[in-house]
Each structure stands twice: as C-alpha cells, then as structure tokens.
Design a protein that fits this description.
Blueprint (H helix, E strand, L loop, with lengths): L27 E3 L5 H4 L7 H9 L1 H4 L3 H15 L3 H7 L3 H5 L11 H14 L17 E4 L3 H11 L5 E4 L8 H4 L8 H12 L4 E3 L10 H7 L2 E4 L5 E2 L12 E3 H9 L9 E5 L3 H12 L3 E6 L10 H9 L3 E4 L1 E9 L2 E15 L5 E5 L5 E4 L2 E4 L3 E2 L22 E3 L2 E3 L9 H19 L36 E2 L14 E3 L2 H8 L13 H5 L5 E8 L2 E5 L9 H5 L5 E3 L1
Parallel strand pairs: 2-3, 2-5, 3-4, 5-18, 7-15, 8-9, 8-15, 9-10
Antiparallel strand pairs: 1-23, 6-16, 11-12, 12-13, 12-14, 17-18, 19-20, 21-22
Helix pairs in contact: 2-4, 4-7, 5-7, 7-16, 8-15, 12-13
C-alpha cells in the first residue's frame, strides 16, 4: 500500500498584475516511482521502504531497535528468508541500482543479510497479517524448498492450515542439499524454517507422494495443492564411459556431502559445467584435498555462475579450462583414468542469448583424472509426484502459477532458477490462490508505478548525496578456507558498516524529507505533515502555487512531477 498522501489538483488562479513571462501552467504533484532495485528483485521486496525506515529513523522519531523491527516486518512480508537470500542471492537488484551511475550500487544483499541475522539473534517472529481470520480450507504443499515454504508461509499468515510433504528428513530443499555449508550454514537455514513452522505450518518429513500418500488422498484432504519440488535430478553427459563408479552428477555429489557421506574422489577431479552447481562441486572437491579442473564449453564471459563464486574458486586454486567439452570418459576396468575433451569455438547465439559452442574437428585430447562430476544441468523428478505429475514434460500454468482449480505450482517445476525467484513465485501463487478461495479478483501482477531512471536523480548534489564508496562484507582469511572447510567464508557487515551503507540509498522516486521543496517554494505551497514517514513528509496547497517550478527542479529523488 502506498504511504503517500493523495493531493487533489486544483486549477491555479492567475494572480492579478503578474507578468505572464514569470508564470507557468505546470503544477507539482507527488508521484511515487518504481525504484529499479524493487523492479529487479525476483522476490518483490520493497527494498527502498525498509532501507528508508532505518535511514530516516531520526526524522521520524524512531529508536534504532524500533526501526530495525519495522524494517524487518516490511522485508519479511515478501521474503521469510532474509538471512538465506542475504547469502546466496546473486542480487540482480544491485546491478540495476541507480547509484551505479555515481560511484557504485548499494550493497543491498549484504544489508539484507545483516537485518536477517539481527532478527534471528533477537528472536523476531515473522509478521502476520492483521485482520485475517482462521480459514477452513486446508492447503497441501509438496516440497519443503524455498518455493514451497514461501508459499506455505504466505498462506499460513492469511489463516489457512498448511501441511508440507517433504520426501527427505530435512527442510530447505535445494538450499539444504545443494548449497555448501561454507556458503549457507545449516543453522541459519533451519532457524528461518523454524519461524515458518512457528506460524502453524506442519512439515511431514520422509513422506513420498505415491508411496506414503497418494495423489487422490491429497486431493481429498486439501482444498488445493501447491507443487514445488526441486530440480535435484542431474542431467547425464550421454557420452561413452559415463556409467560406473567415479562419476557423479553435480546435485547428487553435493547432496551426499551435505547429508554427511564421505566420498572418495581421488587426487584429481574434472568438473563439467559453468553454473553455480559446478562451482560449488569444484570447491567441495578441493575441500576433499583433490586438484580440480572445471571444463567449460564456452568462455568466462558466458559462465552463468555468480562472479564472486568464480573468483573465490580461483583463489582456492581451482583450474578452469574454457572452450572444451567432454566426449568420452576413459576407464581401466571400473576405475576412471581420464576424460577426453574436444576443443570448441563460439558460433552464433542460441536460445539462451549466449554464443553457441561449435566443436572443432580433430581437436580431441585427454586429461588424466580420477573422477568426474557432471554439473551441466538438472531437472525435477516429476515421476516422484505420482498422479500429480504433468501430462507433458512440464506443467502448463498461467501467470499466477495455477494449473487447474486445485493445483498450483512454483519454483523449479516451473523453471529452475534463483532461490529468490522461487521465493517470489511462492508468494505470488499464494496471493492468487487466496483471492480465488475467497472469491476475489486475482492480484494485479504489473506494478502500476512509473519507473524512475538514473537521470531523474540529482546525484551530483554532494550536500544531499555525498560520494561514498560501497562497503564490503568481511571475509575469513583465504588460507583458512580449505583448512576449515565447513566454516562460513563471508562474515557480513558490522553495525557501523550497515548503517553507513544503508544511508547511501538515493530513495529513488520517494520523498525522504530533504526539505528542498519546502525551502525553495516562495509562495509556501508545502507544509510539513504531523506524522512524517518515508514518502510522506509534506503536503501541497496548489491554491498558492504560482508555477515557478522550483520544487520539481530541486527535488533530488524525482518524487515531484510537474504537469
């Protein structure tokens, strides 16, 4: 809901005796804009608002801890996993931050992690929705991953009884089984899951659909079912020698290690692929003491893995060979002895937008290795869904993630993507399902607010936006990364760094009380409001406006339009 006070425009009266050359027909209006960080967040977080609650706390009379709590409630409305996403999200919001045009974008991801960790340390519960009564419609969820738990949380806070069916003995889905603990500590994930359970969400572990509970039983018990299983099935290489010991799929390898198994990969390992799973698998193999080479069929520029993770892998002495693809795995009996690769060159772009790798005839050569980890792609195990699996290869859902009256989907079953995307899909599906169950119109998906580009921000005003370099989270010393393999590498921000960094937000398109419109308005059109807050610091009286346009010209954040 907008925090802005609506101002009804009135037709301005011409002042008698005033020169027409000094007047304008333009009049100011306060228009909240869509900040690029919000527009590019797959989870739909209102980043600007929760930043402003903390950064503007002195203007609004909030103590620091009170501001933290209010900010957390805003963040958690769309994301029940701020500590998790603050660690694993590749933060596309930062790439689109308007402050990139000045001296560098705001470190949004590090700020999210800090507030999430603060909320866990201080025992904050997830926010409920005021006025929602308990509902009778029971909701079933298949998969306790980020999409399923995000959906379950959103339905529970609207009063629905929710049961989650999870085939393993741990919650979190691919965030638990597919991400190394040095990136995402187990206790952090489990603590955020517990808050969802504390809202009344029941998780039934070791429960397989079609075996422990049938599709018909789910349909009879629940008014609607949300399917959100993860993409835990590794795609095969389909090359000679792949079958047998010494070859793992990337997701299988990581899941076994996170489950506590000890795997002997030998002294040398080849990892096939260039995504996050490949990087994670390579770094875990290094922690087992192996020399690791990543084989990638394109160049560094096309690698889809998080850039910082690639850099950290290189710091751990992971080698990367570009423009090569495996064509055969060599064996001596059952033992892997090497992998034959073929050199590639880049051709025209394919459907992904990246240039297509083209084999070079006669360029094959062999690399001696003891084991191979194939991390080229993964997909959900649809067969595990029994009678709820899609008729075709994938579900055919609408823009609200609805398949039919009683079936909704989200996360990897829609398209394997970011954890943040899965969280956002779970929320959107829950909002739409709630509307359907209550006989209301589905929510509007398109944000109606006009976007605000960087040219609308007066970032050269040093007195308003002083030049400040972004802060970076601290890291443990590199020499400790492999010697203490399960310890978290990125340590986060201090409170001083957090408060300094959050003050760098431009508040693009939303009033932050800088007072310039009020100071520069000669006829005193602007009046301070009694209860100020982000986006609500001044009201406008257009009866006294003479059209000088100074307010719009002086507004640094692009909140005031002239029309």
């Amino acid at each position: 809901m907008s925090l802005l006070k609506k101002n009804k425009k009135k037709k301005p009266m011409r002042m008698s005796g005033a020169s027409t050359t000094q007047q304008s027909n333009l009049r100011p209006s306060q228009v909240e804009k869509l900040a690029p960080c919000i527009a590019s967040c797959p989870a739909g977080n209102d980043i600007r608002l929760w930043f402003n609650i903390i950064a503007q706390r002195e203007k609004t009379g909030l103590e620091l801890e009170e501001a933290y709590k209010k900010a957390f409630d805003v963040l958690a409305q769309t994301n029940p996993f701020p500590s998790v996403l603050g660690r694993v999200c590749p933060h596309p919001c930062e790439e689109h931050c308007n402050r990139v045009e000045k001296e560098g974008g705001v470190s949004i991801n590090a700020l999210e992690r800090y507030l999430g960790d603060w909320s866990l340390k201080n025992g904050l519960a997830l926010p409920k929705i005021d006025g929602e009564s308990e509902k009778n419609e029971s909701i079933g969820v298949i998969g306790a991953g980020p999409a399923g738990l995000s959906f379950a949380y959103q339905m529970a806070r609207r009063g629905y009884p929710v049961t989650v069916y999870e085939k393993t003995d741990k919650p979190g889905g691919m965030t638990y089984w597919g991400i190394p603990f040095y990136r995402l500590p187990q206790d952090v994930l489990l603590a955020e899951v517990k808050r969802i359970q504390d809202m009344g969400v029941e998780i039934r572990y070791n429960t397989k659909i079609g075996t422990d509970v049938t599709a018909d039983e789910l349909k009879q018990k629940h008014k609607a079912v949300f399917v959100a299983i993860g993409a835990d099935q590794a795609r095969r290489l389909s090359i000679p020698g792949e079958q047998g010991p010494g070859v793992w799929g990337g997701t299988d390898y990581l899941a076994k290690l996170n489950g506590g198994e000890k795997l002997d990969v030998g002294k040398t390992v080849a990892v096939i692929g260039g995504g996050n799973t490949a990087i994670d698998a390579a770094r875990m193999a290094r922690r087992a003491g192996a020399q690791v080479t990543i084989l990638y069929r394109r160049t560094r520029q096309e690698m889809p893995a998080i850039e910082q993770e690639i850099e950290d892998a290189l710091k751990e002495d992971v080698k990367i060979e570009y423009l090569v693809a495996p064509v055969e795995i060599k064996r001596d009996g059952d033992k892997v002895t090497g992998v034959v690769v073929q050199k590639m060159e880049l051709g025209e772009p394919d459907d992904s937008g990246r240039r297509r790798p083209v084999p070079i005839d006669g360029s094959e050569y062999e690399i001696a290795v003891d084991s191979v980890i194939a991390a080229i792609s993964q997909s959900p195990d649809f067969d595990s869904l029994g009678g709820l699996k899609p008729q075709d290869r994938w579900y055919k859902q609408d823009e609200y993630f609805q398949v039919d009256d009683g079936l909704w989907v989200g996360g990897d079953v829609v398209n394997p993507d970011l954890v943040t995307t899965a969280v956002g899909q779970g929320r959107k599906a829950a909002e739409a399902m709630h509307a359907v169950l209550q006989g209301k119109a589905k929510p509007v998906l398109e944000d109606p607010r006009p976007p605000i580009p960087p040219e609308r921000i007066k970032m050269d005003l040093e007195e308003i936006y002083p030049t400040k370099q972004a802060v970076s989270p601290s890291h443990r010393p590199v020499e400790q990364w492999l010697s203490e393999p399960d310890q978290e590498i990125v340590l986060g921000l201090s409170e001083e760094q957090f408060l300094e960094e959050i003050s760098r937000c431009f508040s693009c398109g939303l009033c932050f009380g800088c007072e310039r419109c009020w100071m520069f308005c000669t006829p005193s059109c602007f009046s301070k409001v009694d209860n100020p807050g982000p986006g609500n610091y001044y009201s406008i009286n257009l009866d006294t406006c003479d059209g000088c346009k100074k307010c719009g010209d002086e507004c640094p954040c692009g909140f005031i339009d002239l029309s």
